[in-house]
C-alpha cells in the first residue's frame, strides 16, 4: 500500500530514478531527510559580517553587463544600493537575468560582501516580490530536483506519516528534551526558523548515535554472553613465567594481563582488542595469556599478517616456551608436504600446542584438537571473513585482537564499540626514545652526512618515500629515483629496494639480506612490515614526510629504536611553514595516542577507517569526532536499556527492539 506509484507524479520512470537512490516506498520518501538546508533569512547591514553568507535586500541602480569569461562561465555585474549604500554586485552564470533586472527593481541577494571594496558576490538572486523568508531543504538526489522531491516527500507525509512508530524511548526524549518523531517529520522537510532547525539536528544526531551504539553494544553483550569452555589455568606456572622474564612488567602490562586472564577464566567468550604503540610490550602480555590457556589444557593459535611477522613471533615464543611442556609450531605456506603433515598431525591430536602462522592457520585441512584461544596480530590486516574462519576452528574460543595502531579514543569507541578494549599507553622504561628531526630538502648535504655517520658505525638505515615510481602528476620523490640517487652517493655501501610491485620472493630475499646486515640502506615505500624487528637499524629517513599522517610517521618510526642503541628519524620536507608546524609535533612527542588525536583533529577520521569496516558509521547529521560526547552518552543509554533483561519484554521498548532486529538482519557484524 505504500508503493511509490501511490504518490501523485510518480510514474514508472520516476520510480526507477528513486529506486536508484535507494528509495523503494513512500516511507523511504519520508525518511530521506534533506542533506542540508539553505537559509534565506533577511538581515541588515548592521547585523551582517563581511565575508559571511548573508541574505539582504537591495535595489538595482545600473543596467547589468555580462562578461563571458570562457565557455560556460560568465559574470553578470551591476550596481545596487543596500540601505542607501552603493555596492557592485557580481554573480556567475546568470547572464539570463540581464533582461529581468531593470533599474529600480527590488531584489534579494544571497552571498557575501566586502565593505572595504563595496562589492557583493552573490550566489543567489531573487526578485523581492518572489522572495520568502525561508529555509530551503537541499536533498541532492541524483536526477531529481529538490523541488520535485520535496513535493513527493510532502505527499508521502500526508498519506503515510501516521503509520510510522517513534522508536526512540520516551524517557530518552524527555531526558534530552528531544522533539517527538512526528514533530520531527513535520518540520524536517520544511523548517521555518533556525530554532526548528536546531531542534531537528539535536534529535537526529542523538538518534543516529544512540541507534548505532544500541547495535554495537547489543552485539558486544551477545558475544560476551556466549559460553566458552571454563579454563582452569595453572596460576603457579603463569607466575613462574612472569618471574623468569628479564624485566618487570609495566603497570599497564599488568593491568592488561589481568583483564585478559579474567576473561579467559570466565565462562563467557572473550572478544577483546589489545591496543598499544609499537614497542609497548604487547607481545609479552600475549605470551603470558597464551601460557595460561595452554596450562589449562587448550590449544592456542596466533595469526600474523605476513610470513616475516609469523616467523618472528615463532622465534620469540619458541625461546620463551623452550623449557615448558608445550610445542610451539610454525605453519606458513612455505612448508614441504611432509613438514606440513607432521605439524597438522600434532595440531589434530595434541592439546599442548601453540600454532603460529599466517592465514594458512585456517586452511580447510587444519583441524584443531581443542582450540581455546585465538590471537590475531595487526588485526586490521585481516578481513572479517578470515577472522571469522579462524574463530570457527574452535568451539567458542576466546579471541584477542592486537593492534599497534593507536586509534584515538573518540574513534575507538565507535570503531570497536562491539569489542572490549584494553589499552597499553605506558612504554617500558628501557626503551630509548627515537630522536626525530626535521630537515628541509635544501639540507640534503647535512642529511647525507648524518647517514654516513651511522653507516660508519655499521648501523643500518631505512629510507622511505611516498611513491614507487616517477609520476607525471606530482614531483613527489619516488623509491626508484631515491634508490639511484643513494647508490650514486654511497658507493661503498649496499643499497636495497623494496616496494609493493616487487615480487614476493624478491621481497623476502631483500628483507633477509637486510636482516643479515648485508644491505646497509633499505629504500622502500611504506610497505616495510609493521612489527619487523631489526635492532641494528638505527636511522630512518622519510622523504616528503608531510605526505604522511602523523600516526603513519609514528608507525614508520617504530621500525627503529628497537635496541639500546640511540636511533634517529629524519623527516625531510619542502619549505613550507604550515607543513613544518604540523611535523614539528613529531620532534616533541613519542606518544602514538597523542599523535593520532592530532591527526584526527587536523586530517579528519578518514585515515583510521581502514582499520575497520566503517560502512556502519556513515551518519547523516552526526559527526563522530565533533559529537563524540554524544556518542559516549548514547553508549551508556544503550547499555542501560540492554542490560535490564525485563526491557526486552516491556511494551514501551518494542518499537526500539523491532528496529534493532531489522538492523541486525541487515548488517552482519562480526
Ligand atoms: P609490541 O609488540 O607492543 O610492539 P614488544 O612486545 O615487541 O612490543 O616489546 C618491545 C620490546 O620491549 C621487546 O624487546 C621486549 O622484550 C621489551 N619489553 C617488553 N616489556 C618490557 C618491560 N616491562 N620492561 C622492559 N622491556 C620490555
Ligand atoms: Mg608486536
Automatic annotation (TrEMBL):
Supply the InterPro entries for this chain.
ATP-dep_DNA_helicase_RecG, DEAD/DEAH_box_helicase_dom, Helicase_ATP-bd, Helicase_C-like, NA-bd_OB-fold, P-loop_NTPase, RecG/Mfd, RecG_dom3_C
Q: Which PROSITE patterns match?
A: HELICASE_ATP_BIND_1 (PS51192), HELICASE_CTER (PS51194)
Stated EC number for the protein is: 5.6.2.4
Transport: present as a keyword of the record? no
Any keyword Nucleotide-binding? yes
Q: Give the catalytic activity.
A: Couples ATP hydrolysis with the unwinding of duplex DNA by translocating in the 3'-5' direction; ATP + H2O = ADP + phosphate + H(+)
| GO MF annotations in UniProt | 3'-5' DNA helicase activity; ATP binding; DNA binding; hydrolase activity
Q: Helicase ATP-binding domain: which residues? A: 263-424
- UniProt entry keywords in alphabetical sequence: ATP-binding, DNA damage, DNA recombination, DNA repair, DNA-binding, Helicase, Hydrolase, Isomerase, Nucleotide-binding
Output the Pfam families linked to this UniProt entry: DEAD, Helicase_C, RecG_dom3_C, RecG_wedge
What range(s) does the Helicase C-terminal domain occupy? 443-601
Single biological process term from Gene Ontology: DNA recombination
Extent of the signal sequence: none
- Show the CDD domains listed in the entry: DEXHc_RecG (cd17992)
Free-text function comment from the UniProt entry: Plays a critical role in recombination and DNA repair. Helps process Holliday junction intermediates to mature products by catalyzing branch migration. Has replication fork regression activity, unwinds stalled or blocked replication forks to make a HJ that can be resolved. Has a DNA unwinding activity characteristic of a DNA helicase with 3'-5' polarity.
Q: Which family does it belong to?
A: Belongs to the helicase family. RecG subfamily.
Q: What is this protein called?
A: ATP-dependent DNA helicase RecG
* Gene it is expressed from: recG
Amino acid at each position: 500500500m505504500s508503493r511509490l506509484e501511490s504518490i501523485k507524479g510518480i510514474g514508472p520512470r520516476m520510480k526507477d530514478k528513486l529506486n536508484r537512490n535507494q528509495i523503494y516506498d513512500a516511507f523511504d520518501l519520508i525518511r530521506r531527510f534533506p542533506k542540508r538546508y539553505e537559509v534565506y533569512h533577511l538581515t541588515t547591514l548592521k547585523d551582517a559580517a563581511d565575508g559571511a553568507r548573508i541574505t539582504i535586500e537591495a535595489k538595482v541602480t545600473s543596467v547589468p553587463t555580462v562578461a563571458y569569461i570562457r565557455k560556460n562561465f560568465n559574470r553578470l555585474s551591476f550596481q545596487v544600493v543596500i540601505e542607501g549604500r552603493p555596492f557592485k554586485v557580481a554573480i556567475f552564470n546568470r547572464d539570463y537575468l540581464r533582461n529581468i533586472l531593470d533599474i529600480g527593481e527590488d531584489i534579494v541577494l544571497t552571498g557575501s560582501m566586502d565593505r572595504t571594496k563595496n562589492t557583493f558576490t552573490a550566489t543567489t538572486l531573487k526578485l523581492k516580490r518572489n522572495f520568502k523568508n525561508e529555509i530551503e531543504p537541499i536533498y541532492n538526489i541524483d536526477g531529481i530536483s529538490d523541488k520535485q522531491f520535496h513535493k513527493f516527500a510532502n505527499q508521502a507525509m500526508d498519506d503515510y506519516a501516521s503509520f510510522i512508530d517513534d522508536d526512540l524511548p520516551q524517557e530518552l526524549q524527555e531526558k534530552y528534551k528531544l522533539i517527538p518523531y512526528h514533530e520531527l517529520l513535520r518540520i524536517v522537510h520544511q523548517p521555518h526558523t533556525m530554532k526548528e532547525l536546531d531542534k531537528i539536528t539535536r534529535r537526529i544526531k542523538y538518534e543516529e548515535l544512540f541507534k548505532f551504539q544500541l547495535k554495537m553494544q547489543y552485539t558486544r553483550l551477545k558475544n560476551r554472553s556466549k559460553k566458552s569452555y571454563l579454563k582452569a589455568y595453572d596460576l603457579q606456572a603463569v607466575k613462574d613465567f612472569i618471574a623468569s622474564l628479564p624485566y618487570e612488567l609495566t603497570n599497564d602490562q599488568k593491568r592488561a594481563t589481568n583483564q585478559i586472564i579474567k576473561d579467559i577464566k570466565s565462562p563467557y567468550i572473550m572478544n577483546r582488542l589489545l591496543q598499544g604503540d609499537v614497542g609497548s610490550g604487547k607481545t609479552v602480555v600475549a605470551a603470558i595469556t597464551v601460557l595460561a590457556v595452554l596450562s589449562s589444557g587448550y590449544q592456542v593459535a596466533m595469526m600474523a599478517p605476513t610470513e616475516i611477522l609469523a616467523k618472528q613471533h615463532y622465534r620469540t615464543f619458541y625461546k620463551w616456551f623452550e623449557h615448558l611442556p608445550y610445542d610451539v609450531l610454525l605453519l606458513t605456506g612455505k612448508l614441504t608436504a611432509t613438514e606440513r603433515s607432521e605439524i597438522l598431525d600434532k595440531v589434530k591430536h595434541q592439546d599442548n600446542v601453540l600454532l603460529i602462522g599466517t592465514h594458512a592457520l585456517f586452511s580447510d585441512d587444519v583441524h584443531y584438537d581443542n582450540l581455546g584461544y585465538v590471537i590475531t596480530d595487526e588485526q586490521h590486516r585481516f578481513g572479517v571473513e578470515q577472522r571469522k574462519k579462524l574463530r570457527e576452528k574452535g568451539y567458542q574460543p576466546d579471541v584477542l585482537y592486537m593492534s599497534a595502531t593507536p586509534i584515538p579514543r573518540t574513534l575507538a569507541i565507535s570503531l570497536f564499540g562491539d569489542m572490549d578494549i584494553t589499552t597499553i599507553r605506558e612504554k617500558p622504561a628501557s626503551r630509548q626514545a627515537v630522536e626525530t628531526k626535521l630537515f628541509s630538502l635544501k639540507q640534503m648535504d647535512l642529511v647525507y652526512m648524518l647517514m654516513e655517520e651511522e653507516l660508519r658505525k655499521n648501523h643500518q638505515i631505512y629510507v622511505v618515500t611516498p611513491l614507487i615510481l616517477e609520476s607525471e602528476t606530482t614531483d613527489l620523490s619516488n623509491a626508484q629515483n631515491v634508490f639511484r640517487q643513494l647508490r650514486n652517493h654511497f658507493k661503498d655501501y649496499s643499497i636495497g629496494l623494496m616496494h609493493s610491485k616487487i615480487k614476493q620472493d624478491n621481497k623476502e630475499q631483500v628483507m633477509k639480506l637486510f636482516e643479515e646486515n648485508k644491505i646497509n640502506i633499505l629504500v622502500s615505500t611504506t610497505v616495510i612490515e609493521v612489527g619487523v624487528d631489526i635492532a641494528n637499524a638505527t636511522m630512518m629517513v622519510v622523504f616528503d614526510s608531510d605526505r604522511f599522517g602523523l600516526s603513519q610517521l609514528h608507525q614508520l618510526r617504530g621500525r627503529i629504536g628497537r635496541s639500546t642503541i640511540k636511533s634517529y628519524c629524519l623527516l625531510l620536507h619542502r619549505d613550507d611553514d604550515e607543513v613544518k608546524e604540523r611535523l614539528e609535533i613529531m620532534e616533541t612527542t613519542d606518544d602514538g595516542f597523542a599523535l593520532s588525536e592530532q591527526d584526527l583533529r587536523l586530517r579528519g577520521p578518514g585515515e583510521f577507517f581502514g582499520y575497520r569496516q566503517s560502512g556502519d558509521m556513515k551518519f547523516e547529521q552526526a559527526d563522530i569526532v565533533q559529537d563524540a560526547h554524544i556518542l559516549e552518552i548514547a553508549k551508556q543509554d544503550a547499555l542501560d536499556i540492554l542490560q535490564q533483561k525485563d526491557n526486552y519484554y516491556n511494551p514501551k521498548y518494542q518499537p526500539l527492539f523491532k528496529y534493532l532486529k531489522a538492523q541486525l538482519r541487515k548488517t552482519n557484524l562480526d
